[in-house]
Amino acid sequence: MKKNLFILLGILTIFNFNIYANGQSEDDNTLVVASNCEWPPLEFVDKNGDLAGFEIELIGALENVTDYKFKIVNVAWDGIFAGLANGAYDLIASGVSVTEERKPKMEFSTPVIEITQSIIAPMKSTGLKSLKDVNGKKVGVQIGTTGHLVLLDNKDLDIDIKAYDNIALAIEDMINGNLDCVITDSVVASDYVLLNENYNGKLKITGIASSDVEPIAMAFKKGDTKTLNIVNDGLKKLEENGELAKLKAKWNL
Fold first, then answer.
1. Most buried among 33, 51, 90, 162, using CB within 10 Å?
2. What is the pTM assigned to this prediction?
3. Which residues lie across from 122 on neighbouring strands?
4. What is the C-alpha separation between 85 and 214, in angstroms, rounded?
5. Does 235 lie in the same domain as 152?
């Protein structure tokens, strides 16, 4: 009897491990959402230590129009896509740009906003209106982001690229005089320049690094059309009832 009991416990342990390995919690109606909460106004940790931002509230709104709960986990950007591929969570909501390089590796929801890549520089800076203007400059980016990829793709330019774990570190290094400028998503750039009290009067957006418009969407494991359809159906309802537009207006998007 004890032998059978141990076998049963072993089976249950393996079963529970497989559930968590696939990103699902013990509740089949809960979807685990990964977010790198260092991208205001899309997702960030507020002064009270709570997760906030456009995509954070968008996930909350999806709960109201679907039969699912969404559990948000704050994870590092470095490795976020590997975690998705490995089944550590069900989707990513973290300012993910839809790119041709990413399409073969993951599924994307209906885009929620569109962005470009902005150049942020200290207030005293001049020029730096386009990518060619940062030739020979020290430029900060968040590692693995589209801002980083824009620089890597332009090998004909002599740019000293400094890649950071998060964009806030790049901004601080620029304020300290170690960078000439920072390249990041336009919505993030606007938040740092216009809304962040710590940088009031210290930063300005000088131009754009790329004229390409980037759709921002939620990302899913390749082949996971079930979760993709759940979210897309929810986004459609939020667009139809006006909630999506209200969230964009609230966060100046």
1. 90
2. 0.79
3. 203
4. 22
5. no
**Tokens representing 84?**
């998705």
Per the structure, the complete domain to which residue 90 belongs is given by 2-113+215-250
44 shares a domain with 8: yes
Q: What residues contact residue 249 under an 8 Å CB cut-off, 6+ apart?
A: none
pLDDT tens profile 123-146: 999 999 999 999 999 999 999 899
Beta carbons within 8 Å of 62's beta carbon, 6+ residues apart:
68, 70, 231, 234, 235, 238
Contacts of 91 (CB under 8 A, 6+ apart): 31, 32, 33, 34, 84, 218, 219, 220, 227, 231
**Alpha-carbon 66 to chain mean position:** 22
CB atoms closer than 10 angstroms to residue 146: 27
Nearest to 179 by CA among 187, 189, 169, 188: 169
How many whole angstroms separate alpha carbon 210 and alpha carbon 145? 13
Q: Is the separation of the CB atoms in 111 and 217 below 8 Å?
A: yes
- Containing 122, the helix (H) or strand (E) segment is strand 113-122
43-45 and 51-52 strand pairing: antiparallel
Place of tokens 């000293």: 160
Q: If 0-12 CB within 10 Å is exposed, 13-18 middle and 19+ buried, where does residue 57 land?
A: middle
What's the pLDDT at 102? 95
* pLDDT, tens digit (0-9, with 9 covering 90-100), for 82-137: 999 999 999 999 999 999 999 999 999 999 999 999 999 999 999 999 999 999 99
